[in-house]
Design a protein that fits this description.
mainly alpha; 8 helices
């Protein structure tokens, strides 16, 4: 299932590259292959570290309890990480954010794409307006920041995939309101912990620690991207195919 999911994602990326070539007369530098592996691995490390820091803060503050380890298979959450990392980043960063930047500029694009990302999570189980706002700020802005820093998808793909995998399989917490069936550890709010602090039934992503960690990283990376001059929309002029490998 994980391999089939990955194959579908590869097909989606290939379709995007073909459509960009036809519609914009260029090969998508946002999918450049030469830096892909390094940026993807960095993203995996950062995403897992961020989510683990969130769980640590929840435990230290007395909001969560963690039990385990236990025997379990990671493949279900690997598939979830592949889909969320590759396909959601392709849609929300390469398409929505990039085109909004070309139409309205960086700041409106960041706000609109993050708001849309949060609003779509309202359809998830146990979702609340607070959870949607948290997702918009801590994840929508943070993942957009990594895309804007590099001008490519790979780092944000890695961060998103590892965030969900660490949250679901490593720590066994609900992923955007969805209960995880198999996990290495099991994490849940302590009895009596306020939902607005712990995230409640939606999971750690709606918690105050997640807002602090995600928003803090977003601010730092967005500032870094701004200092690099990456708040301007990328040129859509025709490019040779070689540029997709550089």
């Amino acid at each position: 299932n994980a391999l089939a999911t990955l194959a579908i994602c590869v097909a989606g990326f290939a379709l995007y590259a073909g459509l960009v070539r036809l519609a914009e007369a260029r090969w998508p530098s946002e999918l450049a292959l030469r830096p892909a592996l390094a940026e993807f691995v960095i993203g995996l490390v950062v995403g897992a570290a961020m989510l683990s820091a969130v769980v640590a803060l929840l435990v230290v503050s007395g909001l969560y309890e963690v039990t385990g380890p236990r025997a379990s298979s990671p493949w279900g959450m690997i598939s979830v990480g592949i889909v969320s990392g590759f396909m959601e980043e392709l849609i929300f960063r390469a398409i929505v954010l990039r085109l909004l930047m070309r139409a309205f500029g960086a700041w409106p694009a960041l706000a609109l794409s993050a708001a849309l990302f949060g609003a779509l999570h309202l359809s998830n189980p146990n979702a609340t307006p607070t959870a949607a706002i948290a997702i918009a700020i801590e994840a929508g802005l943070m993942l957009a920041a990594f895309y804007m820093l590099t001008g490519r998808l790979w780092m944000s793909v890695g961060v998103h995939a590892a965030w969900n995998f660490a949250q679901g399989w490593i720590w066994g917490a609900r992923v955007s309101g969805i209960e995880v069936k198999e996990s290495l550890y099991l994490s849940a709010p302590r009895a009596g912990a306020p939902d607005w602090l712990s995230g409640g039934a939606f999971g750690p992503e709606a918690s105050v620690p997640a807002m602090v960690v995600g928003t803090g990283v977003a601010i730092v990376v967005l500032y870094w991207a701004w200092k690099k001059g990456n708040f301007k929309p990328r040129d859509a002029a025709p490019q040779p195919i070689a540029e997709v490998f550089s």
